[in-house]
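Sample A.
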Amino acid sequence: MVCWWAEEVCLWGGQVPPPFFDGAPTVRRTLRELRETVSAGPPYDAAVMAALAQDERAGARRLHAACLRRIERARAQDARMAAMMRFEEEARQNGFRRIAGVDEAGRGPLAGPIVAAAVVLAHPIPGLNDSKQLTAEQRESLFACLHQDGHAVAKAIISAEQIDQWGIQSANYGAMARAVALLEPAPDFLLVDGFTIPGCIVPHRRIVKGDRRSQSIAAASVIAKVIRDRIMIQLDRQYPGYGFAQHKGYGTQEHIDAIRRLGPCPAHRKSFAPIAETADTGLLFQSGGKEPNE
């Protein structure tokens, strides 16, 4: 007579597998013990999955089905991660080695800085995506990961005052170029979300919606977003009443109502509507720095 657990022994190369049966083949593990066994996966051991598949208990069948779903999700994540490294691989095939993703956060808000980041990944990171598609907790976790394991990260911050002086497009380009210049060691190729960078001497490629299509750009997106959100939380404490911690400076109705009620603060971009609409314009021509008839 062949023991019902003999097939499990075969799967382990003729040796008894880790005990599903508490050291005795006639005593099965409890469902709680089985759940603990698979809690770290996937991947799962083949013997574990075979035992679950043969277990007639309803709870074991549900656990087996849950493991299969996790395997499918892991395969889908692996496929997505590989697809998001396509542009990096193409650059490597063309001889480039230090490929940086570049992105910014904060072009559209009425207040706060614009933040750009440049990132050279040492390896792909599971879960990376456009920062806007992630929760704050996911962004913070990825932010911590990106500052470990040999990834190169640089950032540049352009204040609201500088944005007013330069204009938003020049500030955007300037922030990206500055972040690239701060990377150590320097990158030899850039993948940039949505823009080419005027005057940048590093070869680069513009990728539309790049933060969803490139791991390197997604990494830069996360870095820029987390840094800017932290700055806006600080500004909320410094200038209470505007709700910066909630809307991060964007033109929500709550924010516009606060500007009308309180007036703009130093964190606001004076060149942006509706703030610019409430400001007096200067003289086109001045004489000796004084207004006529003064």
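Sample B, a different protein:
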Amino acid sequence: MVLRWKGMRAESSPLRRSLFVATLLVGCGGGGGAPSGAGGSAPGSAGGGAAGSTGAAGSTTSGAAGSGVGLASGGSGATVLYGQAYTGGQFHLGPVDWAETQWHNACAPATKYAPAIQQAEGTLLAGLWNGIANVAGYCDACIAVTTAMGKSAVLRVVTYGDTTSNSIDVSPDAYAILNSGEYPRAMTWQFAKCPDTGKIVYEFQTGSSEWWTSLWVRNARVPISKVEVQSPNHAAYFALTRGSDGTLTDGGGFGNGSFTIRVSGVDGQQITDTFAWPSAGIAGQTLTGQGNFQ
């Protein structure tokens, strides 16, 4: 068990989150749990597997292949999985929640997740172990969790923090599905396709401008491997840099004018969305794409 600190009071919980929100607009967070880890920056190719559950998790789409809130599945009805399975950890009630009752969500701005994003991504949430390489690259991705007791759920990643290797924190709704009263709460998890909960959303930081442009990609169904922009400042596609809060940033800015964002999934699919430059500027804008990964 790890002690996590909030102010001057030590609280017993396996996941200890870093809080440096004030300086960065967003902070690093975790929940309090012990679950299963994750791995590299881009989880390999899709694999087969099973894991059920409810939860939530312009576009031109190219590449590989649900609807409603619940299990994301391929043609066979099985959850679509990516990369390796992570074992040896446990799941714990963080809690991970939109209200940030205990800890700031590492993938959110200082003002928390926007209500529209919360509604789209649902209440089955998870926080990953911060020992995962490039962990911030998995902000808003989904994981399929299967417990040793046979219960399963597809959860949306909204934070990460300090816990035991390959462990996760979960939201109250996710805990209610997964928990059988066992201890230790052993489980296995793997990156997975999210349920179809609508279109991809691009949430721009409040400090964004034509000279420095930074955003989050929300509600993508497939874990993201790369985000690029073609804009007045970039005749060819230019790769954005991932930050520790999950943001994707162009340090020199997009420039003032129409721009196209290209999002690549780990399965080879690509989404492209083109937008006019907002008349009020790009700062704090939320732009909705035309679709999502299949």
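Observation for Sample B: Residues 201-288 form a domain with the Immunoglobulin-like fold (CATH 2.60.40.760).
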